[in-house]
Structure formats: C-alpha cells, structure tokens
Amino acid sequence: MPILDCSVKNCIHNMESRCQLEQIKVEGSSATNSDATACGSFQLRRNEASYSNSSHLPNPENDVKCAAENCCFNENLKCHADHIDIAGNGACDCGETLCQSFRCDCK
Fold it and tell me: Whole-model pTM?
C-alpha cells in the first residue's frame, strides 16, 4: 500500500499530515493533470478539536482507490505508487484538493 502524506490540515481525517482512513478515493476519471484530480474522501473539519476518530493514530499506509484512469500509477482503479501526496490546505470541499502524485500516462 502507498505511503500517503496529506497537507489538507482542515480535513477531519488528517492527523499529523497523515490520513486516519484505511482507504481513500482519488477522483478525476478524465484527468490529464493533477489539478483535475481530487480527494473524494475529504471532509471539512469544523474545529481544531474534531477528528473523525480520535482513538486512531495516523495511518502511514492507505489503500487508495483511484478513478484517474490516465494516471500511470492506476492499475485496475487502485493506486500503485509508493508514495502519494494529497494537497489542498485550506480546502472547503473535495474539489479544492488534489493528488500531487498524479502522472499522466495519456496515449
């Protein structure tokens, strides 16, 4: 499973720049660049004290379902990159996030 770093500090799943979820979804089925991708698992944190599950520690590895069909790391709708960076600090919805690890394998 990929190691996932996340700079989306205001996502409820983000703890210490790691995602607490065991699985996330990257959206952007027709993306040809990282700006056209998004973290479909993003949820806005309403305040600093709220976390999706405060009993869990950050997950260093995540299963990443990926709808970005043009990404060279996408194999059968799963990401096979060794390392993934999700960006979008200050995002208010998933459309303001992106997968910075996206690499177009456009034909």
Answer: 0.84
